[in-house]
């Protein structure tokens, strides 16, 4: 599926890419993810990261994706909108570009378990959708199922209190400084180009 060149170029300029597309009534939902390598260096040089105010990444996302929506006649949608919250997980699986992993987190052929969405563009037309990707977990040895040192992430779901308790220990420093070991174990994600500095930033905001 080829998107308008102007939109593709505008996304690339902000280090974003379309990680999936889903039909929603008369609209097409474009799921926007960090385009690595280079996303973190790009976004941390933006004004939101220099003004000392809270939530710089979310504010950057809303400014940039909001401007893209205006420029291309669509709507900007964000995971934080709500309640009720937009169905990003459902859109991702419906796009057949991201899939539930053995630990229930989304796995994407390019991002692996680093799959994340900065937001979405809802364009007011029904665009042809790309063919389904191969499930990235197909044929994988599933190192994610044994990577969590405290068993917080498993096929049963995510035990958030157990995760926080582990991060409070000295053994949790590796996760805090380099990112979740489960996500790091995913083979496709290892070539995605996400920086440890970005993972550490997210972990600091998750574990306060």
Automatic annotation (TrEMBL):
It comes from the Bacteria. Residues 128-158 form the 4Fe-4S ferredoxin-type domain. It comes from Rhodobacter capsulatus. This is 4Fe-4S ferredoxin-type domain-containing protein.
């Amino acid at each position: 599926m080829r998107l308008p060149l102007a939109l593709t170029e505008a996304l690339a300029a902000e280090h974003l890419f379309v990680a999936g597309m889903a039909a929603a009534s008369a609209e097409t939902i474009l799921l926007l993810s960090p385009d690595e390598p280079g996303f973190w260096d790009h976004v941390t040089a933006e004004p939101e990261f220099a003004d000392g105010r809270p939530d710089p990444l979310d504010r950057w996302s809303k400014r940039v994706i909001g401007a893209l929506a205006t420029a291309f006649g669509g709507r900007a949608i964000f995971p934080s909108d709500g309640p009720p919250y937009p169905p990003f997980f459902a859109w991702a699986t419906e796009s057949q570009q991201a899939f539930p992993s053995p630990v229930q987190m989304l796995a994407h052929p390019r991002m692996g378990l680093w799959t994340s969405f900065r937001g979405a563009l809802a364009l007011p037309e029904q665009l042809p959708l790309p063919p389904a990707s191969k499930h990235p977990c197909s044929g994988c040895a599933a190192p994610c199922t044994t990577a969590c040192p405290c068993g917080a992430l498993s096929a049963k779901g995510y035990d958030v209190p157990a995760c926080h308790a582990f991060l409070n220990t000295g053994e949790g420093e590796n996760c805090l400084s380099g990112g979740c070991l489960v996500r790091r174990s995913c083979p496709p994600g290892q070539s995605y180009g996400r920086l440890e500095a970005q993972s550490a930033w997210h972990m600091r905001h998750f574990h306060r």
